[in-house]
User: Fold this.
Amino acid sequence: MAINRLAVFGDSWIYGDELIDPSIPGLECCDHQNKRYRNTHSFSALIAEHFQFPHENFGHPGASLQSTIWTFLWFLENRTCHQDTLCLVGLTGTDRQSWFNPDHEHLGDDPLWNKFIHSTWVNFGSSVVPPEWQDFGKQYLTMSSCDQLSALNYLQAVMFFDGVSKAQGIPLLQFNLYDPHTSIKTDASTLLWPEQNLQHTLLERPDSKDIHAPGHHPNEQGHQIISELLIPEIKRAILT
Assistant:
């Protein structure tokens, strides 16, 4: 089946955090007025433009490997004809965790699949996290978070995406956004650059200061570079 769509999954790097329309002073990245700019300047948008595919961005700031898996499961249940959709999965920090909040209230442009509380929000004391979830997250951090769990989180995610891709014939590539900090190896054929991560790749460039936004996410130039890294891999692994 011919590929004619693109879907991307992951955290704030996938979402396009800090890609802000310069024509609207004081605009927040998550503001609905910024959605079009963010969705046309992220690396997934550039890839979609290159291949002339429509694309859907399932990235979300603070997302974990767990919430990325849950979001992908929502995609499988609510989107049809998955075999014609190229899926790109950015593997986020292995020490992150997410919890499902059945009482989440959707407001504005909040996507239907988003019912998550993320440990990253708790760790930064985000005001959007209710007090009971703040307490829950702190207990998790104290009682369960450890390097062994991080390694299991990573292996679970890589094997999940690789297995679903092969079992259902979904064209999929996954790649490390950050160092997974684990010696666990996997032979997952869908995993690009197992020994590398995009954060390190961009930071090691001589023009690193020019391709990052103030909060250390890739800026427009950074997203252009990521798209140029991924397009040849897509052609090699998926489209040939």
The mean pLDDT is 94. The longest strand covers residues 85-91. Strands lie at 5-10, 55-59, 85-91, 98-100, 116-118, 172-176, 191-192. Residues 228 and 237 are 15 Å apart (CA to CA).
